[in-house]
Design goal:
The protein is an alpha/beta fold and 485 residues long. The protein folds into 3 domains: 89 residues, Rossmann fold; 218 residues, UDP-N-acetylmuramoyl-L-alanine:D-glutamate ligase; 145 residues, Mur ligase, C-terminal domain (Protein-Tyrosine Phosphatase, Chain A, Alpha-Beta Complex), CATH 3.90.190. The protein has 14 helices and 23 strands. Strand 21, helix 12 and strand 22 form a beta-alpha-beta unit. Helix 1 runs parallel beside helix 2, helix 5 crosses helix 8 and helix 6 packs across helix 7. It is globular, with a radius of gyration of 22 Å.
Length: 485
């Protein structure tokens, strides 16, 4: 394994279109390395990011993508034995490492590591915290953040930034801490490489059913992260989850709870939501801290903002900068992102990966677009949603929509039949509640079926953690030629 990288290396990333991998590619290129990469299939926003950076992207995987041989290969966590490029790397004994190990070795040393972790809300909370620090740095330059986010933060127009080191200053590095495994040769969570000085723990639920056998295994992973925070550090932890309480119970550092509980150190009160804006009062230790405004809908987003505000304040960021930053926060690509408004139909893109995330997305859209007919268009694509362990929870979440449409399970053949989600069962359960729903083979079939049914005022939430067969472009085009009022 590589322990460090000298300048002017040729580094190749296998699985480069992963959000963290593409960001790391940009970070390494900015340091003067020659970067190449490969993936099975590219889709926005990371394909757009790579194209903008001028980083060559080879599709599909092939041994020829390693010609000429790179000095170092970074292997994405989606890559397993049998991948033709990985096999060639092993045969040729090309030095290789993981994304998380490279990030630690090359970028985190000497910085203050601030890690956002949890089953839900990591990407948005990381983006919020990075923007808070950015706003604060206008008057306190030592707070200028470096960051790595699992999505494109719209305030920055990128998913990463690395500030030059300043002698004598321990600068903040803000990063999303993923509990998914690190690589085929390192099955521990990526976040165990990040050694946080302070961290946020948003939620802990059973997820990633392909690598965790049960909730207990998930909690063990988060407990190990908590165990890495030093005594001088800080944990900001959600107060509405017994699982979170269990995970932080044996922390050696200060733990500050946040949420709606009356005895929490950081407490939201008087939460008001109007359209796509949220306002609330935030108390710290029982005393008023600030009046906060966020141009985003959803209780979950107010909680994410509170977590970011709490960690920033605890690290010495002024309250005025926190208030200003949250009021000007512009969200993250693929998080309640309005992709199109055509003939009065609003199309929303959301990176859905878990029934709880789907539930909170649909709740937020109900708040943002009251009185409008809400469609949920779901591609069961994540390793969690492709499995039937969450079938009942998925029904409960989709029941918040007026109409639900499901695609066939993505690469269903990779999931054992006994474990596989059957979308027709979800449709039947929704139908038993009197809710209209249907299942179609793919994006093209969905577009053909629903475009003639859409009418002015409808809100369509497209829920997927992938490209979904180009539906984000195909549906608006179809609506243009199939208007209904």
């Amino acid at each position: 394994m590589a322990q460090g990288v000298d300048l002017a290396k040729h580094i190749h990333l296998i699985g480069i279109c992963g959000t963290a991998m593409a960001s790391l590619a940009g970070m390494l290129q900015a340091r003067g390395h020659r970067i190449t990469g490969s993936d099975a299939a590219a889709y926005p926003p990371m394909s757009d990011l790579l194209a903008g950076l001028g980083i060559p992207l080879h599709q599909p995987y092939a041994e020829a993508n390693l010609d000429p041989l790179p000095d170092l290969v970074i292997v994405g966590n989606a890559i397993s034995r049998g991948n033709v490029e990985l096999e060639a790397v092993l045969d040729a004994r090309i030095p290789f490492t993981s994304m998380a190990a490279m990030l630690h070795d090359e970028f985190l040393a000497g910085r203050e590591s601030l890690v956002m972790a949890g089953t839900h809300g990591k990407t948005t909370t990381t983006s919020m915290l990075a923007w808070i620090y950015e706003v604060a740095s206008r008057t306190r330059p030592e707070l200028a953040p470096s960051f790595l986010i699992g999505g494109v933060a719209e305030n920055f127009g990128t998913s990463f930034m690395v500030r030059p080191a300043v002698d004598g200053v321990r600068q903040p590095f803000i990063l999303e801490g993923d509990e998914y495994d690190t690589a085929f040769f390192d099955k521990g969570p990526k976040f165990l490489h990040y050694f946080p000085d302070a961290a946020i723990l948003t939620h802990v639920e059973f997820d990633h059913a392909d690598i965790y056998v049960d909730l207990a295994a998930v909690k063990t992973a988060f407990q190990r992260l908590v165990n890495l925070v030093p005594r001088r550090g800080r944990l900001v932890a959600f107060d509405g989850s017994e699982n979170v309480s269990e995970c932080v119970a044996r922390a050696f550092c200060v733990v500050e709870r946040y949420g709606f509980q009356s005895d929490s150190h950081w407490r939201l009160t008087d939460l008001r939501q109007q359209g796509t804006e949220s306002r609330w009062t935030l108390a710290r230790g029982g005393e008023r801290f600030a009046e906060l405004r966020l141009p985003m809908a959803g209780e979950h987003n107010a909680l994410n903002a509170t977590a970011a505000a709490a960690l920033a304040a605890g690290q010495g960021v002024p309250a005025a900068a926190i208030v200003q930053a949250l009021a000007t926060f512009r969200s993250v690509k693929r998080r309640l992102e309005v992709r199109a408004e055509v003939n009065g139909v609003t199309i929303i893109d959301d990176f859905a990966h878990h029934p709880t995330a789907i539930r909170e997305t649909l709740r937020a859209l109900r708040t943002a677009y009251p009185g409008r007919r809400l469609w949920a268009i779901l591609e069961p694509r994540s390793n969690t949603l492709r499995r039937n362990v969450f079938e009942e929870a998925l029904v409960e979440s989709l029941a918040l929509a007026d109409r639900s449409v499901l695609a066939a399970v993505f690469k269903s053949e990779a999931i054992p039949v006994a474990e596989r989600l059957h979308p027709e069962n979800v449709v039947a359960a929704l139908g038993a509640r009197g809710l209209e729903s249907a299942v179609y083979a793919d994006a093209d079939a969905i577009v053909a079926a629903i475009a003639p049914e859409l009418r002015a005022g409808d809100v369509v939430a497209i829920l997927s953690n992938g490209g979904f067969g180009g539906i984000y472009e195909k549906l608006p085009q179809a609506i243009e030629v199939s208007p209904r009022t």
